[in-house]
Design a protein that fits this description.
Blueprint: H1 3-30, H2 36-57, H3 68-76, H4 80-86, H5 112-144
Helix pairs in contact: 1-2, 1-5, 2-3, 2-5, 3-4, 4-5
Length: 145
Amino acid sequence: MKPRDAEIRSLVAQWLQKADLDYKTVIQLCAEAGFGDIVAFHAQQAVEKYLKALLTRHQVEFPKTHELERLVELVASVEPEVALAGADAIWLSRFGVEIRYPGDRPETLPGDEDRFLELAKTVRDAVMTVLDPYLVLVGEAADQS
């Protein structure tokens, strides 16, 4: 495995670790009532990080942004099927930053948590369908060097 490949694989793994923490937070908090805002925030963060992991794997530069629409546009250039899976998740963008400030934030309603989880899961599954074989292949190449 070339050093650059190892670097990219490491960055992809780091993005995935962060995304998985947000995703697991969504799963755990969906089990309890009253965490709509926090679930929305972590669902947005998970989607954002899964998309950034995929872009990193393809070596596509992306801006430091929480805007899922921009990330989905960039993903469409390398993985159109993942972009399709992420299209509905663009709705989560408003929960990425605005939700952290009282009084000027989008409202979550009881039961929205299930939708947040489903959107994050859809993007996670689409991204991992692409990245799992890559991580295995790169890992095997590292084992052989």
